[in-house]
From TrEMBL:
<dbReference type="GO" id="GO:0071949">
    <property type="term" value="F:FAD binding"/>
</dbReference>
<dbReference type="InterPro" id="IPR011777">
    <property type="entry name" value="Geranylgeranyl_Rdtase_fam"/>
</dbReference>
<dbReference type="Pfam" id="PF01494">
    <property type="entry name" value="FAD_binding_3"/>
</dbReference>
<protein>
    <recommendedName>
        <fullName>FAD-binding domain-containing protein</fullName>
    </recommendedName>
</protein>
<dbReference type="InterPro" id="IPR002938">
    <property type="entry name" value="FAD-bd"/>
</dbReference>
<feature type="domain" description="FAD-binding">
    <location>
        <begin position="5"/>
        <end position="309"/>
    </location>
</feature>
<dbReference type="InterPro" id="IPR050407">
    <property type="entry name" value="Geranylgeranyl_reductase"/>
</dbReference>
<dbReference type="InterPro" id="IPR036188">
    <property type="entry name" value="FAD/NAD-bd_sf"/>
</dbReference>
<dbReference type="GO" id="GO:0016628">
    <property type="term" value="F:oxidoreductase activity, acting on the CH-CH group of donors, NAD or NADP as acceptor"/>
</dbReference>
Length: 381
């Protein structure tokens, strides 16, 4: 295979599929490649945050309704934050949100792309090489194929090949979280339609969670700042099991529970950095652009929002026939305006609160106040 496209999107997660959907009707020849064959699992908490659904609704009511029609999901409009001193604060999210295992949600997104666009979807195609020439990029895949595209959109997640090949990278543990999760059934005494987030005094900055995903299943996980996990030499899989089996605030719910999946782990590149997310002939979106929200660790919304902003930039580039690094600055500014400032503020808030369990408890107690609660709901999305 050697094929020429206008646009190659690498990665068919929320960022890549949102970008593909936003390019619907553009008349461009678009290819969407993923290393996996869908349905594929993705280690995640499985909360689909309201800004993700809002972005879809803004793009197209038809596509929004189609995503909402996904049957394998759980409604959880309320989050219960349990403070280090055991106090509970309930939040009712303003916008539409639901939980769905990424196995189903991401497949549904990709099926929507297949149904509603002319995008050429290639699954089981790991991209291993990205080389930029003066007026096109050459992508090589693990099976030895190659294809060319005028523009490359790197939506290939936290370990993005595109970001590694085309931008300077250094790993900063203070800008990165690590998290693990497993699915359980038989968790008891869970409040209805509620996600539980436990901020445990022993494990800050970070939290343990129990999120319903439907059909009696719960996504149970634990994540924390990578720098703290490394400094304390924590094995997060062991920590997760220890919390479930022994923690006085949690273990009671798990007495009759069954672990129904292996524990999976993954990294979360936190937003709020100034690292390059675009250059001549390429753009990065989602985790590849380090856009995870630092306080609660959600990134499906920022992935979809940035994927759609990338699509806008693609259209701009083709309209002006300008694919230069200078032209891409528009995208960098758009992402910074829409997401970057808020992510940077939340990053510093997270660092300020880290290792201050009393302050975390006091802040959440204050958040019981309805005005502050409104602010917090807006702050984390
Ligand atoms: C434990 C955990 C819990 C989380 N919980 C939540 C949550 O509840 N809600 C939330 O909003 N966010 C959550 N996040 C963050 C969220 O998972 C990510 O921010 C989101 O998946 C980013 O979407 P993306 O499209 O950028 O990347 P991804 O979803 O990672 O998709 C990237 C795609 O690229 C493909 N790919 C990778 N490399 C290549 C390659 N070389 N060639 C071709 N294809 C490739 C992958 O197969 C994948 O399909 C969590 C993350 C973790 C780790």
């Amino acid at each position: 295979m050697s094929t020429a496209y206008d646009v190659a999107i690498i990665g068919a997660g929320p960022a890549g599929t949102a970008c593909a959907l936003a390019l619907r009707g553009s008349g461009l020849r678009v290819v969407l490649l993923d290393r996996a064959k869908f349905p594929r699992d993705k280690v995640c908490g499985d909360i689909i945050p309201s800004p993700a659904l809002k972005a879809l609704r803004t793009l197209s009511m038809e596509l929004y309704e189609e995503i909402l029609a996904l049957t394998r999901k759980a409604e959880a409009p309320t989050s219960c934050l349990i403070t280090p001193d055991g106090h509970q604060v309930r939040f009712h999210w303003k916008g539409r949100t639901f939980n769905s295992a990424r196995l189903h949600f991401d497949e549904h997104l990709l099926n929507t792309v297949k149904k509603h666009t002319d995008v050429h979807v290639l699954e089981s195609k790991p991209v291993v090489g990205v080389a930029l020439a003066s007026d096109h990029a050459v992508l090589t895949t693990a099976d030895g194929d190659s294809l060319t595209a005028r523009l490359v959109i790197g939506c290939d997640g936290a370990n993005s090949v595109v970001a590694r090949k085309l931008t300077p990278r250094s790993f900063d543990r203070t800008r990165h979280c690590v998290a693990v999760r497993a699915y359980f059934s038989g968790v008891t005494n869970m409040p209805e339609r509620t996600n539980e987030l436990y901020f445990l005094r022993e494990y800050l900055p970070g939290y343990f969670w129990v999120f319903p995903v439907g059909e009696g299943m719960y996504n149970v996980g634990f994540g924390m700042l990578s720098a703290t996990a490394a400094a304390q030499k924590l094995d997060l899989k062991k920590v997760l099991l220890a919390i479930v089996q022994e923690h006085p605030q949690v273990a009671g719910r798990f007495v009759d529970a069954t672990q129904i999946s292996a524990i999976g782990g993954a990294g979360l590149p936190l937003g709020g950095t100034q690292r390059p997310i675009a250059g001549a002939g390429f753009l990065l979106a989602g985790d590849a652009a380090s856009l995870v929200e630092p306080l609660l660790g959600h990134g499906i919304d920022t992935a979809m929002q940035s994927g759609m902003l990338a699509a806008e930039q693609v259209k701009r580039c083709f309209a002006s026939q300008d694919f230069s690094a200078a032209a891409m600055q528009y995208y960098t500014h758009a992402v910074q305006e829409k997401l970057g400032r808020k992510l940077a503020r939340n990053y510093w808030l997270m660092r300020f609160l880290s290792n201050k369990p009393r302050l975390v408890s006091a802040s959440f107690r204050l958040a019981s106040n309805s005005l502050l609660q409104k602010w917090l709901v807006r702050a984390v999305g």
